[in-house]
Amino acid sequence: MTTAIDASSAAPTRFTRDVVSVLSRELRPTLRDPFSLIFSLVQPLFFLGLFGPLLVATTDAPAAQTLQWFVPGILVMVALFGTGTIGANLLDDIMAGSHERTLVAPISRSALLVGRALKEIVPLMVQGLLVVLVALPFGFSLSIPGLALGLLVLAVFGVGFGALSYSLALAVVGREWMFWVVHQTVLFPLLILSGMLLPVDAGPGWMKIAAAINPIGYVVEAERALFAGNLASPDVLGGVIAAVVIAVIGLLVGTRSMRRAG
Fold it and tell me: Subcellular localization, per the record (predicted)?
């Protein structure tokens, strides 16, 4: 009995240790060559600086109100594209042979998947904080608890979406071009129908129906409510549920794909 209890309590500890080990290994190249990280930090700022003024100019709302709507959408967009492309990194590792070496290590497939996905979350958090700090002088108001919860929801969403990206990469090994075909075909409809950049309320009926079944749209609305400090808004609950569902599906599918690949 005692042995069974000890084994069950040791499993989460070993899983956490494995995740930290994988995360440290994955972050090491980024820390050695910070140029790619710096470049990724600049990209959302370009989007904020170039698309934001156009959006402000096309609405009658004050700039601060427009930013309050727009900035959370940028953060979700960064998470969507950042974690959606990490499968390409896995394809590079497979072609270089490093992925096979990782599979023979005494690390669970789920820890390997979560550790790699978390590696993409770290720059995502930095990007989010940077975008918010730049938007503050232009009237963007911020709730600190909302910021913390908003980044947590993005992290949950990012782990799940990143796991799905890994699953796609494993499914197209040997046909790498297929990864980008599926990537572009799926991501842009998700982007447009989520209302990140432009509201879909004024769209035709079919577009509203498509937007209603797009889980990322619920994450976007939750981020807007959280950053505005409306922590008790029903939009927050909808976004949390959507992020958790994506994470659960992503980890289940991703872990299964990794085990098959092993």
Answer: Cell membrane; Membrane
Separation of alpha carbons 142 and 226, rounded Å:
9
pTM above 0.90, yes or no: no
CB atoms within 10 A of CB 14: 14
Instruction: Provide the angle, in degrees to the nearest 10, between the axes of the packed helices 86-96 and 109-135.
Output: 140
116: which 2 tokens?
């790699």
CA–CA gap between residue 206 and residue 209 (Å, rounded): 5
- Identify the band that residue 5 occupies on the pLDDT scale cut at 50, 70 and 90: very low
Distance of CA 98 to the CA centre of its chain: 24
pLDDT tens, 230-251? 999 999 999 999 999 999 999 8
Report how far apart, in Å, the C-alpha atoms of 102 and of each of 21, 47, 173 are.
12, 36, 17
